[in-house]
Amino acid sequence: MRLWPFRRQVSAKSRSVALPPLAEAAPADMSRLLRIESDETKALDAARSRLRIMGMSLGVGFLLLAGRAVDIAVMGPADAAPIARQAVHAETRGDLFDRTGQVLATTLQTHSLYADPSLVWDARETAEALATVLPDIDVDALTEELGGRGRFVWVQRNLTPRQRQAVFSLGLPGLGFRMEPRRVYPRGRLASHIVGYTDRDMAGLAGAERAFDSALLSGDGRPVALSIDMSVQFHVDEVLRSTMADFEADAAVGVVMNVRTGEILSMVSLPDYDPNRPTDADAGGRLNRAAQSVYEMGSTFKAFTVAMALENGTATLESGYDASNPLRIGGHTIHDYHAENRQLTLAEIFTHSSNIGSSLIALEAGAEAQRGFLGDLRLLERAPIELAESADPLLPRQWGPTETATISYGHGLAVSPIATIAAFAAIANDGVYVPPTLLPVAADETIVGERVMSSEAARAVIELMRENVTDGTGGYAEAIGYRVAGKTGTAEKPSRGGYDRNRLISSFSAVFPSDDPQYAVLVLLDEPHGNESTYGYATGGWTAAPAVGDIVSRIAPILGVERAETDHGERAALIRAALMPEIIP
Known about the structure:
Layout: H1 39-75, H2 81-90, E1 96-97, E2 103-115, H3 123-131, H4 139-146, E3 153-159, H5 161-170, E4 175-184, H6 192-195, E5 197-198, E6 204-206, H7 207-211, H8 213-216, E7 224-225, H9 230-246, E8 251-258, E9 264-270, H10 283-286, E10 295-296, H11 302-312, E11 320-322, E12 327-329, E13 332-334, E14 343-345, H12 346-351, H13 355-365, H14 367-376, H15 401-408, E15 414-415, H16 417-428, E16 432-433, E17 450-451, H17 455-471, E18 485-495, E19 498-512, E20 519-526, H18 540-558, H19 568-579
Parallel strand pairs: 1-7
Antiparallel strand pairs: 1-2, 2-3, 2-4, 5-6, 8-9, 8-20, 10-15, 11-14, 12-13, 16-17, 18-19, 19-20
């Protein structure tokens, strides 16, 4: 093949300087101008193209593998990725504190154990070995999971340091640990129903953990303070446990509330549970009876009946009612527990806790007035507290004369203890209703309440409640120096075909000090049994009232309530209650 020289002529024009002639020369790179056409060259080019494509493919593959390796190293296996992302968010869940700064709930980093079934040598042997150090493991279930085709299996989450070391010492292949956040409750059972608990992924399921879930997961780890005082909570809890044991009650409830701010300072529900291990408790233990259960509250409702009559002007303290005989209405007969069998004034009806008299007061006022007044006290709706567990009341299907009479003394309408104490707090707060709350109120914060009765009516009821302690059925609730005012309540539990006289709900609702009410206290016992010290009686005056007196004596100094000089009338009430036992409804 002959090669012909290639010539390129270039001309240029310039206004001033002429370019020198361009010398003829061979191009610097003949390969760009000449192409040797041969079979060998075509084969070589094709091979180079294939190699380039293969190299690029391998490079992309290695990049993908490297990225996946980094993803697994950082986030864990694919099955655990969603959990890992949730855990990163849950690490910032804020702590819960009481009003004094005590930690009620916090988040700690713990080790969780997982397995890669493809690396496990013997599924059964591995499961049995793990069960020796983690006794909660279901060997059969874990064996089946370890024998599967997956690449990731949770074995047990949130191990203690001792458990992690024990597993590590086994030296089993295919096991690994991941760091995970865990919600921890340092105070255990104390205030468990208030604090609540979370699930594995740190979502609030009950109590304050659920009520304030959004605030706790705001992203900055900001804590949430609650209104409860753990010192008060401790004493209420201790008194309730002792009282529940003494009277062999099925359950017990205790609540303390600031009547002016609505702050809940204590809320105890027994039986309870450990929020660190909520699944170990049965449904009864996790049930918050203070907010989630509703009860027919018995004679405590007589305080509302009297307040209604005074507020509506249908009666005065001196108004008289004939309680000399049982009252028949709607095919039912209403009796008094310890009948006076005479004409009673409104004040005497309250002091002697007369069902007959209370019914007559309500019937005189009318069903509409009764329903409206109880509605103003928020007793016909769920208690307006932050807890999702707050239950709706059980209302009568119809509200006729029979219902009006029975509701006047706390039968035929079931409400929660938290709703009841909030209604009593309204009476103590000069007739202004303030919603109960689990959030602390600042000293300079203005509380907006709703007036539900006049100051005159509220003060008159408080005076009657005080007389009920000094001269009536609530003598055992007295706490010398703190001027307790309150009302007993005893309700028979509903059963098939009526009420069971042997199964009682016994309670006492109180406020103190009576001359300047600041706090409300409620104690309720579910099916208490009388004992030798109560002469066999299990009514509210014998069981719940003494518990209230004990609680007030303990918590009043903590709350800064000054003790008044000893009132001889108070001492006389205690002596009279001790030496002159009677049936107390």
